[in-house]
Structure formats: structure tokens, C-alpha cells
């Protein structure tokens, strides 16, 4: 642990986490959080039909599948809410774990790119209004943690097993796509990275996020008759 977090850097990272969490922990839900909560509650009732529920948005009731977001994050909210409830405190506590992941991963990436300024770089990013204010209950911070983990896997020099490395990268890219469709470029990034590094024997790992999206699309068809993406 000392070698991984030298010179008390772990303590600073944890302080950043406590600070960011404290600003969000008891904050009231934002108006857009409601859609996430209602979708998660529907999933608890009908876990095999996540797109078929009705949600009242802007005083008009419509099917959940009209929302432009896949459901991985909503399933996480549903599972957490089933155990701890859907109040601000437990839900924002869940969000704080993604916040911690973002802080640690940002620091690890900075250690590779700017090792002498890693802690400062991490603090500047994590204390910015874009990150701290954006915690609430939206998908932004959880999605960012997946993106950071994906890119860390691509550039981390100490990971020896290339096969395991890209298997995990492909899985994370798939999870990111199932959290928000705007993560689809990660699939292209992974393909280009493998091609540039001449890792042609591992090109097949790109099929992991593609297969995850195909399975999700098949699920959509069985659920409400069409493909959501």
C-alpha cells in the first residue's frame, strides 16, 4: 500500500473523496433524478421487462423506452434501493463509491502521464465544479468511472496479461455502452488501439461490447417489440 500510494498521497485522495461526498450526501434530489428513481422502482417490480413501464414526465405519461438511456445504471439503483431504500442519503452514498473510483483512477492515469504532478492534477480535476456539482444521482459520475477504468487499462504499463487486460477493457466498454449510448466510441477506440499496437491476435476482444449490445437489443425486442438503441 505504501508503494502504491507514496508520501501520504492516499490520505489526500481520501480527503478529496470525503470533501466531494460531503457536498453531495444530503443534497436534495434534482428534478431529473426523478426519472432515474422511477425507472429503478419499476425494475424492482418487473426486472425482466425494464422498458415496458410507464413514467410520468412533464405531466405526460409515457413508456420508459422513450427515454434515451439504457438500463445498467438503473439496475444498480434498483438493487441498491431494494436493500437500503431510495432516500437521498443511501442513494448519494452509492454515488460516492463511483466518486472514489473516479478519484483513484484519475490519480493512477496521472501517475502514468504526469507522474511528478499526479496529485495536483487529480485535485484540480476532482475539485472542479463540473465534477463536484455533477455528482447528484445522474449517470455522469458512474459513467466517468467506467471511462477512466477503460483508458487506464489501455495505458497501464504494469499489467502483464494482455489477454486479460483487453478482456476486461472490452467488458468495461460494454458496461459503459449499457450505461449510456454515447460510450459507443470506446469500441472504436479499442479497435484502433489494438490495430496501432499490432495486437491483431486480440482483435476478437472488441466483440465483447458488441455482443453485450446485441444481447441488450434482443432483450429490448422481447420486452417491447423493437430495439432501443
Topology:
Layout: H1 9-24, H2 33-45, E1 54-57, E2 60-63, H3 72-84, H4 88-113, H5 118-126, H6 129-132, H7 140-155, H8 162-177, H9 185-196, H10 207-224
Antiparallel strand pairs: 1-2
Helix pairs in contact: 1-4, 1-5, 2-3, 4-5, 4-7, 7-8, 8-10
Shape, per Cα inertia axes: flat
Tell me the span between the first and last alpha carbons: 42 Å
Largest sheet: 2 strands, antiparallel
Lateral strand order in the biggest sheet: 1-2
Low-pLDDT stretches are: none
Helix content: 55-70%
Mean pLDDT comes to 91
Q: Counting H and I runs of at least 4 residues, what is the number of helices?
A: 10
* Total beta strand runs: 2
**Cα-atom Rg, whole angstroms?**
19 Å
Order of helices and strands: HHEEHHHHHHHH
Class derived from helix and strand content: mainly alpha
Strand content: under 5%
What does this structure look like?
The protein has 229 residues and is mainly alpha-helical. Helix content is 62%, strand content 3%. The chain contains 10 helices and 2 strands. It has helices spanning 9-24, 33-45, 72-84, 88-113, 118-126, 129-132, 140-155, 162-177, 185-196, 207-224, and strands at 54-57, 60-63. The protein has a two-stranded antiparallel ribbon with strand order 1-2. Strand 1 and strand 2 form a beta hairpin. Helix 2 crosses helix 3 (72-84), helix 4 (88-113) runs antiparallel to helix 5 and helix 4 runs parallel beside helix 7. The radius of gyration is 19 Å and the shape is flat.
Amino acid at each position: 500500500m505504501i508503494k502504491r500510494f507514496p508520501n501520504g498521497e492516499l490520505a489526500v485522495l481520501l480527503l478529496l473523496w470525503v470533501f466531494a461526498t460531503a457536498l453531495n450526501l444530503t443534497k436534495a434530489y434534482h428534478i431529473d433524478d426523478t426519472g432515474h428513481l422511477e425507472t429503478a422502482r419499476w425494475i424492482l417490480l418487473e426486472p425482466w421487462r425494464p422498458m415496458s413501464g410507464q413514467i410520468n414526465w412533464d405531466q405526460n405519461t409515457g413508456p420508459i423506452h422513450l427515454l434515451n438511456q439504457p438500463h445498467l445504471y438503473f439496475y444498480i439503483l434498483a438493487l441498491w434501493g431494494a436493500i437500503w431504500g431510495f432516500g437521498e442519503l443511501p442513494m448519494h452514498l452509492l454515488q460516492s463509491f463511483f466518486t472514489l473510483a473516479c478519484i483513484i483512477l484519475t490519480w493512477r492515469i496521472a501517475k502514468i502521464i504526469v507522474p511528478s504532478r499526479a496529485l495536483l492534477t487529480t485535485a484540480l480535476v476532482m475539485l472542479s465544479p463540473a465534477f463536484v456539482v455533477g455528482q447528484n444521482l445522474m449517470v455522469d459520475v458512474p459513467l466517468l468511472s467506467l471511462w477512466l477504468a477503460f483508458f487506464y487499462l489501455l495505458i497501464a504499463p504494469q499489467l502483464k496479461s494482455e489477454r486479460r487486460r483487453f478482456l476486461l477493457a472490452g467488458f468495461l466498454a460494454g458496461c459503459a455502452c449499457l450505461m449510456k449510448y454515447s460510450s459507443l466510441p470506446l469500441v472504436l477506440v479499442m479497435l484502433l488501439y489494438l490495430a496501432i499496437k499490432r495486437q491483431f491476435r486480440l482483435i476478437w476482444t472488441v466483440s465483447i461490447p458488441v455482443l453485450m449490445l446485441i444481447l441488450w437489443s434482443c432483450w429490448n425486442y422481447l420486452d417491447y417489440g423493437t430495439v432501443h438503441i
